[in-house]
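Good morning,

Attaching, inline, the backbone tokens for the sequence recovery test we're adding to the shared suite. The designed sequence is right after.
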């Protein structure tokens, strides 16, 4: 079955983390919120975050026995089943320790650990609306605090620490522009160059 696997080098075996179909926003120790894992991140406390296709984010605490669940805020406020539309396409740990969440058509989000929800990243409304136009496929952050966001169809966007947003897209009249607006993966090197 689909699930999250973790390789243990000391014992040379794999541990499977499976979904519990009854996982809710309040239960713990119940397994993953969904088996279709789409994104992973590990924080400085060795907490593993697993983004899923349709079931939000599961945080697996360092004891690997305690689970916490995070779902998209709008669905909880609408009194609908929160798991139904909590699609996650990218996860990234920011330099400030926040867990950033990329989604299809819901823009850039952040996990609110106290409220146990995924809520919109604090941006000016026009910028949030711009980011909602694309599925966020990848998130990275450079040493200057810029957050780089790659989309499946809208190129790359740079969110500066001052809140400004700059877009980089394909331009057939500019040979130095992006060759394609579809960004499937990217990373930052030590010189803040972006291979993609």
């Amino acid at each position: 079955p689909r699930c999250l696997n973790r390789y243990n080098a000391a014992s040379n075996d794999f541990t499977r983390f499976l979904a519990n179909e009854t996982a809710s926003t309040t239960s713990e120790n119940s397994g993953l919120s969904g088996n279709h894992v789409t994104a992973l991140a590990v924080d400085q406390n060795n907490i593993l975050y697993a983004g899923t296709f349709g079931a939000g984010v599961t945080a697996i605490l360092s004891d690997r026995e305690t689970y916490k669940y995070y779902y998209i805020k709008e669905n909880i406020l609408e009194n609908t089943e929160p798991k139904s539309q909590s699609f996650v396409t990218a996860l990234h740990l920011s330099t400030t320790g926040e867990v950033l969440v990329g989604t299809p058509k819901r823009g850039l989000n952040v996990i609110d650990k106290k409220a146990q929800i995924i809520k919109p990243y604090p941006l000016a409304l026009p910028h949030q609306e711009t980011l909602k136009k694309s599925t966020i496929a990848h998130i990275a952050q450079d040493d200057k605090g810029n957050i780089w966001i790659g989309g499946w169809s809208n190129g790359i966007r740079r969110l500066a620490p001052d809140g400004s947003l700059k877009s980089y897209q394909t331009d057939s009249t500019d040979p130095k522009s992006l060759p394609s607006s579809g960004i499937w993966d990217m990373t930052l090197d030590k010189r803040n160059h972006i291979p993609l």
